Amino acid sequence: MDAGPTIRITQVADYVFTVDFGAALPALLTDESPPIGGGTGPFPEQLLISGVANCLCASLVFALGKFRQEARGVAAEASCRLERNPAGRLRVTAIDVRIRLGAAAADLPRIDRVLEQFERFCTVSESVKAGIPVAVSVADRDGTRLK
């Protein structure tokens, strides 16, 4: 097994932590959302869905490049559903990622092949799917749903 990335987390105060990604990247300040935390930084659920969405977008860009398709920009919005488990603890029970391409589908002749493959390239979403359903949709610049 290859070693993956490593981070270091250090408490600053209450629920505020600094996430250290190493010397090459700036640290990230995180917090819990109110009323538990002060909301001074992204909270864990936001970090989870941003990781899933970012990985999916990067995988889509990779697949588009593989088929020499120009998306003219990729953007996404991600959300998650929180529900209480039988013990009353909040859990992420679903993630929804809505990706939008900057190009029209008509300008992407191989988009079907791209859409068939890109999710499999995403390490994060494919790993998270083992425990949390992840719904992914893709639309072109006109809002036409492609997936």
Overall number of domains: 2
Low-confidence stretches: none
CATH class of the largest domain: Alpha Beta
Helix count, DSSP H or I runs of 4 or more residues: 3
Q: What is the percent of helical residues? A: 10-25%
What is the end-to-end distance? Answer: 33 Å
Placed side by side, the strands forming the largest sheet appear as 1-2-3
The run of helices and strands is EEEHEEHHE
CATH architecture of the largest domain, by name, is 2-Layer Sandwich
Into which percentage range does the β-strand content fall? 25-35%
Walkthrough of the structure:
With 147 residues, the protein is α+β, with helices and mostly antiparallel strands. The protein folds into two domains: 1-42; 44-139, GMP Synthetase, Chain A, domain 3, CATH 3.30.300.20. The chain is built from three helices and six strands; from the N terminus they run E-E-E-H-E-E-H-H-E. It has helices spanning 44-66, 111-117, 123-128, and strands spanning 8-13, 16-20, 28-30, 74-84, 90-101, 134-139. The strands form two sheets. It has a three-stranded antiparallel β-sheet with strand order 1-2-3, with no helix packed on it. It has a three-stranded mixed β-sheet with strand order 4-5-6, with helices on one face. Helix 1 packs across helix 2. The chain is globular and about 50 Å long. The two termini are 33 Å apart. The relative contact order is 0.15. The model has no long low-confidence stretch (mean pLDDT 95).
